[in-house]
Design goal:
The chain has a three-stranded mixed β-sheet with strand order 1-3-2. With 390 residues, the chain is mainly α. The protein folds into two domains: 125 residues, no CATH class; 253 residues, no CATH class. It is globular and about 75 Å long. Helices cover 67% and strands 3% of the residues. The N and C termini lie far apart (88 Å).
Length: 390
């Protein structure tokens, strides 16, 4: 006789102990990471022989799809979580053994979270605790003098001015390089710099344009590398003239450069040595922005002098970039009440995302948090001061 569906479901039900056991492996995995993350030799070995190869395999399989698997997974996870929470509430209300049922379902959520976090710790967070790019390549930071900072900033301004005339622009002077071409040549841009820094030599996979680019813009981000799929995901709504530098930054993560300042440094070097005008310009322009910010704090007059030296095209792009990001802070529907509510909501969400990410970076040995992006200035000044014999 065939069992009823109800009987079948009852037959496969797991006891609470079994549910708890499901959490043991990811819990041990996570605890092991936190126990070993201060042991640099162990983390270095794991990063090189376990994490990097697995991320490479994940990148290979995810590259088959033209869309971002990260986004699909996030949407699916969100839908499942809402469904599971609603079902948990309904089932708990209807059944007699409410506490037992609730504990089992909460353990299921805990198991999923632990599996995701445990894998993420070993596939990506381990990189923050392994030997850094600077340590692997003997890049010594002896501090930055104002004169060297000014000299390197001047060099970047000069190069940006020169290249700003070589990129494609419309009759109004606005940047019009093709996004698709920028994506298509992205996997080639590390070829030259990898000769100087062999640790940057590796198989690269084409970055993915994000479907939810509008959401990234609203929260103030231009790209994200997702270790669980090995994908570099790019906000395609952000100003296109800096997109090549964003792609280079995320590809640096794909190559195992974890720290944000070092990923910026590696990305800028990849851009300016790539041999592709759009990438060269983006690299010098992004570097110029970070260097000028540092110079503003160090010597206002020298900062002003650099500003005067910039071409009309560079100033146009910098202004367009500023206006774009300012526009993402407000919402305009034409109805004042909704504008105020949605603008406040946007600011709240953006601040929350930034604070969470800042806390995450600090928890992973990145003391500067979100400010670590700008810390690439020391590396840039050190590298270009020597290479240009300033």
């Amino acid at each position: 006789m065939n069992r009823s569906k109800k009987e079948t479901r009852q037959a496969v039900k797991l006891p609470s102990a079994a549910h708890a056991a499901v959490c043991v492996f990811p819990a041990v995995l996570t605890v092991l990471f936190y126990a070993l993350r201060s042991n640099k030799s162990a983390i270095d070995w794991t990063s090189a022989h376990v994490s990097a190869p697995i991320r490479g395999v994940l990148s290979f399989f995810s590259s088959v799809y033209p869309f971002s698997l990260m986004e699909v997974m996030c949407v699916a996870a969100g839908i499942w979580l809402i469904y599971y929470i609603v079902k948990t509430i309904v089932v708990t209300i209807r059944r007699r053994e409410k506490l037992k049922i609730l504990s089992k379902r909460l353990l299921t959520i805990a198991a999923v979270v632990l599996y995701v976090w445990g894998l993420f710790c070993w596939l990506w967070n381990s990189g923050y605790h392994a030997s850094s790019f600077a340590e692997k390549n003997d890049l010594v930071n002896n501090g930055v003098t104002v004169s060297d900072l000014y000299a390197v900033t001047s060099l970047f301004a000069e190069k940006a001015n020169e290249l700003s005339l070589l990129v494609k622009r419309d009759d109004d002077g606005r940047y019009i390089e093709d996004r698709l071409e920028i994506f298509d040549i992205s996997t080639l841009i590390y070829s030259n710099i990898a000769i100087e820094y062999p640790s940057l030599d590796g198989r690269l996979y084409k970055p993915k344009p994000m479907m939810f680019s509008w959401l990234m813009s609203r929260t103030g981000y231009t790209g994200i590398y997702f270790a669980l799929t090995g994908e570099s995901n790019i906000n395609t709504r952000a100003p296109v003239f800096l997109m090549p530098a964003t792609i280079a930054h995320e590809l640096a993560h794909q190559l195992g450069v974890a720290a944000e300042d070092e990923a910026n440094f590696a990305g800028i070097l990849a851009c300016v040595t790539s041999g592709y005008t759009a990438y060269e310009y983006a690299g010098y322009l992004l570097g110029l922005m970070y260097l000028r910010n540092a110079l503003f704090q160090a010597d206002f007059q020298k900062w002003a002098d650099i500003g005067i030296s910039l071409s009309a095209e560079v100033n146009r792009d910098l202004q367009d970039n500023y206006e774009y990001w300012q526009s993402q802070k407000t919402v305009e529907t034409g109805v004042e009440f909704f504008d105020n509510v949605l603008t406040t909501l946007t600011e709240t969400v953006s601040d929350a995302v930034t604070n969470v990410y800042d806390g995450y970076l600090k928890s992973q040995n990145q003391e500067l948090g979100v400010r670590s992006y700008g810390a690439c200035v020391d590396l840039l000044v050190g590298y270009f001061s020597v290479s240009a014999e300033l």
